[in-house]
Amino acid sequence: MSEIIKDRFVKNRTLIYLSYIVGFISILVLIILRPFKKILFVRVKVRNFGMFFDSYSSYIVNDEVEKFKDSKIVHILYYDSDNICNSYLDSLYRKRFKIYKHNYIIFSIDRFISQFKLKKFSLEITSILALQKKFYVKEKHFNKLGLHYENKIKFSNEDLKKAEKFLQSYGISMTDKWVCIHNRDKSYKNRFEPFPVENKVHNYRNFQIQTMKKAANYFESMGYYVFRVGFEQEHEIDFSSKKIIDYSFSNKRDPFIDIFLISSCELYFGSNSGVCSPAINFKRPLVHINYPPTNLNISSDYLTLPSITKKIECLKTGKLISFKEMYQSKIIGVYDDEHIKSLGYKHVDNSEDEILQIAKETLENISIYNNIKEDDLTREYNKITAYYNKKVLGENFLKVPLKLGKSFLNKNKYLIS
Questions:
Q1: How confident is the model at residue 3 (pLDDT cuts 50, 70, 90)?
Q2: Is 232 left (phi over 0), alpha (psi -120 to 50) or beta?
Q3: In which element (H, E) is residue 151 found?
Q4: E-assigned strands of 332-376?
Q5: Rounded to two decimals, what is the model's pTM?
Q6: Sign of CA pseudo-dihedral 205, 210, 211, 214
Q7: Range with the lowest mean pLDDT among 63-72, 83-92, 138-147?
Q8: What distance lies between CA 335 and its chain's CA centroid?
Q9: Cα distances (angstroms) measured from residue 117 to each of 10, 27, 45, 158, 204
């Protein structure tokens, strides 16, 4: 519970001051009760779709593995905001758990625990990377799609009937194949985050939907339906057709369908934003485009098909730098756009042709994703990332970095120089 929640209560200074009193009294009560009941507050982050989605299975699985809920321990699960990003996920949580909606008492306790770092009164839901480590250490391989632990989100028959009806409205059956494409932009964070973090922090992750036009047309030519997914997108696509559907701007959008389309697609093709969480959890084939290379240190918590990264340009020289130089410049692991620029670098987006090429490579290999033979360039890339993840970051777990497309590495050999 490290961050401080900013919400409607923060607007009133009197309520902020009173929150310390309410929080202090609440902690005193918890201390008095501790010999009999150990009460832990468990925050569920509901503004961030990826975290909201991942936390459902992560909390259940970690409980099964650690068995941390004995008779003396009581978990109080609560939402960290009124601004819930997906009402279908909300319904799943409420059916499965006793969960408290955001209110002033919860705000006060959460703020007090966060401000004074009283970690013994809280339980943080394990991240997918941390939970993956437990299962990776046990299994010692990355030869299957998705996460190494069980996805706990199950669709009901009623849900599936709803999905079938939705697809039929576009002349699609449940057995047809579709690709979900997604570009990250600033709109989602600007709506759901409590302070203006998008331009300062996350801007380096964004790219334009127009750069996916050739790839979408290619998927269509190969017999696939294409759904542009994502909630609160900035721009509509100008290349819609009978088989290329801009679902993000459709009047048929629905919180369940948001998840169903990605969880049941033949391929997710797009950003590494939280939108891709259903594809990861439901173990769907997945390709990242415009993957920020500064995130290479966290790229192996799930298996992908060969993908492509953005490039990094030195602002002083105007030259693109290699992966080695990225590690040596200590920008790998930096997730703040202003910080990256302060170090003298910026991200460069993939071109439309690069995205088209990885789309073609994907369909050539989608049925043999686990048996794609490594070439010399791929082996060198794996050698570089394995060495520097351990040397610079001290991370032994990250032995399988984001897979990169062969044509991408061949055309950008400087990356592994």
A1: very low
A2: left
A3: none
A4: 345-348
A5: 0.92
A6: positive
A7: 138-147
A8: 13
A9: 19, 12, 18, 44, 31
198-210 residue pLDDT tens: 667 889 999 999 9
Provide the β-strand partners of residue 77: 42, 99
Confidence category of residue 232, pLDDT binned at 50, 70, 90:
confident
Residue 389 makes CB contacts below 8 A (sequence gap 6+) with 296, 297, 395, 398, 399, 401
A 10 A CB-CB count for 160 gives: 14
Q: Average pLDDT in the 217-228 region?
A: 98
- At 168, the amino acid letter reads Q
CB 319 within 8 A of CB 348: no
The identity of residue 416, as a single letter, is: I
How buried is 314 (Cβ within 10 angstroms: 0-12 exposed, 13-18 middle, 19+ buried)? middle
Q: Using CA atoms in the order 132, 136, 137, 138, what is the torsion angle rounded to 10 degrees?
A: 110
Higher-pLDDT residue of 142 and 148 is 148
What percent of the chain has a predicted confidence (pLDDT) above 90? 70
- Please write the tens of the pLDDT for every residue from 90-137: 999 999 999 999 999 999 999 999 999 999 999 999 888 778 777 655
By residue count, the chain amounts to 417
The contacts found for 364-367 with CB under 8 angstroms, 24 or more apart, are 365/305, 365/306, 366/266, 366/267, 366/285, 366/305
b/e per residue, 40-61, with b = 16+ CB within 10 A? bbbbbbbbbbbbbbbbbbbbbb
Find residue 312's DSSP bridge partners: 347
Task: Answer yes or no: are the C-beta atoms of 235 and 188 closer than 8 Å.
Answer: no
* Backbone angles phi and psi of 347, in degrees to 5: -85, 145
